C-alpha cells in the first residue's frame, strides 16, 4: 500500500490544487492532503478554515484524507507511514524551489521520495497569492476556485473592510 502526502499552505485551495490532488489520488492507494499551519506567508485563513475548504473541494475522492500539521514536512510524512510526497509544478520558477526543497528533504530523510506532477495547462497561471490579490481588488475568481472558496474569500474581504 503506497501512501502519499500532498503538503502545502492551500490559502486557499484553488482549481490547480484540486487537479493535482485528484490525479495523485488516482496514482496512490491513499492520499493525505496536509495543510501547513503556519507558513511564512501572508495567510488569510486559519488552518481549520483551510482544512474545511479543502474537505469540501475534495469530497469527490474517497481515498483522500485532509489534515493540518506543524514542524518539518518530512517528519509529518514519516509519522503517517507515507513513502511519497507529491508536489505540483507550474512554471520554471517552481522548479528551482521544488528542486531545492526535494534535495533538502532527501538530506533529512532519504527514504521519502518527492514526486512532482505538472500542472494542467488550464491552471498554470493560478496561485493562491494571485487569487487573493484579484479578490482584494474586486475581481472575479469564479474560474479559478470552487464556489464555496469564492464565498469564503468574499466574506474575508467583507470582514476586513470594516463593512
Ligand atoms: P506552498 O506549498 O509553496 O505554500 P501552495 O500551498 O500554493 O504553495 O501549493 C501547494 C502545492 O501545489 C505546491 O507543490 C505548488 O507548487 C502546487 N501548486 C500550486 N498552484 C498550482 C497550480 N496552479 N497547478 C499545479 N500545482 C500547483
Identify the notable features of this structure and list them briefly:
single chain, Rossmann fold, 6 helices, 44% helix, globular, binds adenosine-5'-diphosphate
How big is the Rg?
A: 16 Å
Q: Major β-sheet, in short?
A: 5 strands, parallel
- Distance N terminus to C terminus? 50 Å
Q: Kindly report the CATH topology.
A: Rossmann fold
Instruction: Assign the CATH class.
Output: Alpha Beta
Question: What is the H level of CATH, i.e. the homologous superfamily?
Answer: HUPs
Give the overall form. globular
Strand content range:
15-25%
List low-pLDDT spans. none
CATH architecture annotation:
3-Layer(aba) Sandwich
Number of helices: 6
Mean pLDDT: 95
Whole-number total of structural domains: 1
Estimated structural class: alpha/beta
> Which small-molecule species are bound to the chains here?
adenosine-5'-diphosphate
Across the major sheet, the strand order is 3-2-1-4-5
Task: Write up this protein.
With 163 residues, the protein is α/β, with parallel strands linked by helices. It has one domain (3-161): HUPs (Rossmann fold, 3-Layer(aba) Sandwich), CATH 3.40.50. The protein has helices spanning 15-27, 47-57, 73-79, 92-108, 128-136, 147-160; strands at 3-8, 30-36, 64-69, 84-89, 113-118. The protein has a five-stranded parallel sheet with strand order 3-2-1-4-5, sandwiched between helices. The longest helix is centred in the middle third of the chain and has 17 residues, at 92-108. The chain starts with a strand and ends with a helix. The model has no long low-confidence stretch (mean pLDDT 95). The site of adenosine-5'-diphosphate (ADP) has 16 residues, from helix 1 and strand 4.
Amino acid at each position: 500500500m503506497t501512501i502519499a502526502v500532498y503538503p502545502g499552505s492551500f490559502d486557499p485551495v484553488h482549481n490547480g490544487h484540486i487537479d493535482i490532488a485528484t490525479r495523485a489520488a488516482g496514482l496512490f492507494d491513499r492520499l493525505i492532503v496536509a495543510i501547513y499551519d503556519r507558513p511564512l506567508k501572508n495567510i488569510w485563513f486559519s488552518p481549520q478554515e483551510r482544512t474545511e475548504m479543502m474537505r469540501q473541494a475534495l469530497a469527490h475522492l474517497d481515498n483522500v484524507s485532509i489534515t493540518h500539521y506543524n514542524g518539518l514536512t518530512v517528519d509529518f510524512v514519516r509519522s503517517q507511514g507515507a513513502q511519497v510526497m507529491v508536489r505540483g509544478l507550474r512554471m520554471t520558477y517552481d522548479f528551482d524551489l521544488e528542486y531545492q526543497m526535494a534535495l533538502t528533504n532527501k538530506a533529512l530523510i532519504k527514504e521519502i521520495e518527492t514526486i512532482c506532477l505538472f500542472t494542467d495547462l488550464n491552471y498554470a497561471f493560478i496561485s493562491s497569492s494571485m487569487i487573493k490579490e484579484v479578490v482584494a481588488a474586486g475581481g472575479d475568481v469564479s474560474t479559478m476556485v470552487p464556489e464555496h472558496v469564492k464565498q469564503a474569500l468574499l466574506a474575508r474581504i467583507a470582514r476586513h473592510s470594516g463593512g
